[in-house]
Structure formats: C-alpha cells, structure tokens
What we know:
alpha/beta, 6 strands, 6-stranded parallel sheet, single chain
Amino acid sequence: MKILVVSAHPDPRSLNAELAGFAVDHLRAAGHEVRVSDLYAMKWKAVVDGDDFPDHAGDQRLHVMDVSQDATLAERLTADVAAEQEKIRWADALVLQFPMWWFSAPAILKGWIDRVFTAGFAYGPAVPPPYSEGALAGKRALVSVTMGARETAFSDRGIHGGLQDVLHPLQHGLLWFTGVAPLEPFAVYGANALLDEQFAAARRELGVRLDGLFTDEPVPFRTLVGGDYDHEMRLLAGVEEPGTEGLALHVRGRG
C-alpha cells in the first residue's frame, strides 16, 4: 500500500522527528511504499494569500473558497500545493505526526491543511458530499501526536477534555469531512520528560498501530447521508444512545 507521512516539528532531533522516522522505516520494512512531507525541512509556506492563486487579480476581493476552486479545477495552483495534492491522491493512507501546541497542530501543519485541502480538491460542489464518501473516500489516516501533559489530564474528566474532543476539528472536521476514515489517534503523553524505556515502549506501540493501519476499525463517525441528520445538518432527535451528549453525538455507539 501507499502511505504519506506528514511530519511537523522544527527540530530534526526531536521526539516527533524520531517517531516520524521510525514510522517511515517500519512501514517500508512491512513492504509499503512511503512518501514523506517534512514541513519544516521543506520550509513550507504556512499562510493562504493571493500568491497561492496566480490568476487572481490583485484588485479584486480574495474569496478563498471560490478562487481556490477555480484554480484547482483549472490546474493553476502553485507548484508546492499541486505537489502535495498529488501525494494525497497517490496515498492510500496518511500518517500525521506532530506535537500538540495550544491544543492544536503547529501553525505550519495548519497552513499545510489550509493551502492543500482546497475547494475542488477536498470539498465543494464539484466533489461528493462531506461526512460520507467525500472527495477523498477510501483513504485512511492515523493522527500521531505528542504532548507534555499527563494522560489523566486528557481523560473523560481531565481538565483538558477528552483527547477525542480536542482532536475533533482534525479527526472529524478535516479527515472525515473529506471522506478520509481516521483511526483512533495515537498519543504519547509526558513527552517533555520521556525516559528511554518509555520512548522504546511508545515506539513499539506506534509500530502496532501502524501494522493496523489498513485493518483496524476507524472511528465510527456518523455519515451525513446515512439518515441520521436532517436537511439542516442537525442530528435527528432520538438517534443517539441514551446519555450521549456533546461531540460524542456524532460517533455511533459511543456514550
């Protein structure tokens, strides 16, 4: 199978870089084809602006959704964005490796998402509907994240909130929105003071998760076209299991 590993940490000696390198080696040893987007090494441009759309007239309002769709369909995106889109088209699965900074992905990874997942490529009226088959249907993804906090802080009663809720914008709002089936995220807690034996254990666990990239069950998010939502994209009353609330409403069988 073909896998794209996207890495986002500024230091090639970091824990994240070690995990990304381990993932690449492990997947290739298992017989997979692997491509890598090391965003800091690539010096990835992290902001969307008029320079992303060569045909856009500078004296006109920059309506990003419309302009990005026009440029995508006309094959007039900048070379760096077009290259990343081609990697995603090529891949059967994505592995996103990054540190959690302020409860989100680093700005450079968010910028990769903003610039690469354009209208006409990842969403929009010219592609299948979101939260179902989607434009990128058939692909899978594993989000692998490190954080300095302890695991209990991201538990169901932890002060930071459950990890699935914190990662909901990425797991559900990006991946599932575009049709990519995300697996349960892989997390390394206490990353700022990880002992050698703890890192070795984390690497072994990541290897197990990578081995299940195409066999593990993805997060069972509800589909927009599955009869659970009305025409206003609101979940129908009584569809959820008793006691379910919050973001868990949009996951089947999770109370």
